[in-house]
Structures are given as C-alpha cells and as structure tokens.
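Journal club side-thread
Mid-discussion, someone asked how the predicted structure for our own chain would compare to the paper's figures. Pasting it here so we can look after the session.
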Amino acid sequence: MTSHTYKAHPSPNTDLMPAGNYYVYIMSSQRRVLYIGVTSVLENRVFQHKTHALGGFTAKYNAASLVCFERYATIHAAIAREKELKSWRREKKIALVESMNPRWKDLSYGWFQKHRYAPER
C-alpha cells in the first residue's frame, strides 16, 4: 500500500520543528472497532498496540490490525489530520479504509515475525 501525504497550512512554529515522518494510522479489531492515532515511529507504535503494552482502548477491544496509514512531513499536519478523521462519522472512516485497503488486510503483517534462517552474507 502506498501512503499518502496531505498538504496542510504551515504552523507559525513549523520552522522550529524538524521535518520528518509522522503518521496518522487506523487500527481495527476483527469486529472492525476502529482506533485512530498519530505517531512518529509507526512500527514501534503498532507493536505496542499488538502486544497491549500500554493497555487502554486498543487493548480492551483488541484493535491490533493496522488497516490504514498516512505519512506527513510535520507533526502539525499529522495532528490536524488525526483530529479531522476523529471528527468523521463511522461510515466515512470505513470508506477511507476501504478506499486504501478494501480487504482490510493487516498492513503490518510480517513486520514482527522472527526469521528462521540468518541472512546469507
């Protein structure tokens, strides 16, 4: 899946923040309970959700599948998008996921499995 970058109006403090990778992501349970979050290290955050390391909503509802994510250059843009998505009705959130991931596959599949064989050198 390809991530999308959305342009946002620059914040007055944008030049003080380092440009980087910030992610807005959607986690889902098997029953399609949705959780929307923002992070700067997507792999670590998804791992925390999958292992229920922090408890809370995703642990309670077992929202452990990464079904959608978007990448942003600034934290301000990512937070603005997170707030926008959280304000949407459920139907619109589902339409977003299905537009990017129609089969609701776990996009983090394979990220955390250990390999049987050491890589060749």
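Post-session note: The two ends are 30 Å apart (CA to CA).
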